Amino acid sequence: MQFQQLAYFLAVARTRHFTRAAEVSGVAQPSLSKQVRSLERELGAPLFSRARGNITLTPAGEALLPLAQRMLTDLETARREVAELAGVRRGRVRLGATPSLCAGLLADVLSDFHTRFPGIELHVEESGSRDLIRDLGRGELDLALIILPLQSSDPDFITTPILRESLVVASSMADPSPNERASMRITELRERPLVMFRRGYDVREATLRACRAAGFEPALAVEGGEMDAVLRFVEVGLGLAVVPSMVLKNRPGLRGTPLARPRLLRTVALARRRDVEPSHSAEAFRRHLNTYLLELPPEQLGPDLEVLISAVDAGAPERGRLSPSEDTAAEWEPPEHSG
Predict the structure, then answer these.
(1) Where in the chain is the domain with CATH 1.10.10.10?
(2) Which residues are within 8 A (CB) of 107 and not within 5 positions of it... i.e. 6 or more apart?
(3) N or C: which terminal CB in the chain sees fewer CB atoms within 10 Å?
(4) 64 and 7 Cβ atoms separated by less than 8 Å
């Protein structure tokens, strides 16, 4: 029994006409009829009743019909999956990410992805969200992990929010805790020296905006550092810093104190250009990233991280877009109201 014979059988079963089935299948009618008769001989039973030009399924044909449909569907699925695997066996992913994501989430994701797809080259650009969107628009990146919301213009971008994260106050474990409570108010930073990121960092703008909204300009002990430098400066006691919670992972010299309500939150999203279809390699990375996040254990997420995608999103096309009217890099969570 050959798959082509089953395809011809299904074509006749659908059209109930040998000539039309041959036309649909793109073969000569005598060739199709020969293959169907060969299938009937192999199965030892007629599949069609050909009385007076009426083509109907025999009991044997009725029994074969769902089996043939399933076999051909499985064949098509196998062909598609093999083609996809072949497509991502080799390739390249040009990925942009913010420094906090490179220092936190991305290393583990890339390690797992490289283990599964060792033939795919990974090119990572570390920069702020606005620079990454610019390079994505120029075609210099395939995907970018950015912080939402973000002002954008042409070209249009598709974004998928994947994580919501709390910003925390980092301090040195060698120093006393910033206060005696489990959390800090943003106003408590008024009299404390801060270590501040360089311009272009989303978290810098979020921190300054939050302090100004609380009615003060922060006092800066050190300004202008990259992520690793800021964390090291805090570790040696130069000051406090407002940082994404994920960057404190595997840093025993630092503690993270949550901000009391209203908390300072940020949303991480995966972005690509709307007018460019992702390559097999880029799509493989997107699915891998989503699956990785969905499989994170609750104890690793903790209270400061929330996964925003669902199991459906892990294999579904991206949805949503950047809003041209939004220009903030973090959001205030509304305060709790009692009574």
Answers:
(1) 3-87
(2) none
(3) C
(4) no
User: Which pLDDT score, from 0 to 100, does residue 326 have?
Assistant: 33
Please give the angle made by the CA atoms of 120, 125 and 127, to the nearest 5 degrees: 155
- Residue limits of CATH 3.40.190.10 in the chain: 93-160+269-288+307-328, 165-264
Q: What is the mean pLDDT of each run of 10 residues along the chain (339 residues)?
A: 88 91 90 92 91 86 90 75 65 90 87 90 91 88 89 71 92 90 90 91 89 94 90 94 89 91 87 86 91 83 83 53 38 39
Q: What is the CATH number of domain 93-160+269-288+307-328?
A: 3.40.190.10
Residue type, 18: F
Structure confidence at residue 155 (pLDDT) = 56
For residue 26, which phi and psi values (nearest 5 degrees)? 75, 30
| pLDDT, position 43 | 93
Amino acid identity of 313? D
Say how many residues make up the chain. 339
Q: Is the Cβ–Cβ distance between 289 and 270 less than 8 Å?
A: yes
Q: Residue 142 carries which side chain, given as an amino acid letter? A: D
Q: Give the class (CATH, top level) of 3-87.
A: mainly alpha
Q: Between 3-15 and 59-88, two packed helices, what is the crossing angle to 10 degrees?
A: 120
- Architecture of the 165-264 domain: 3-Layer(aba) Sandwich (3.40)
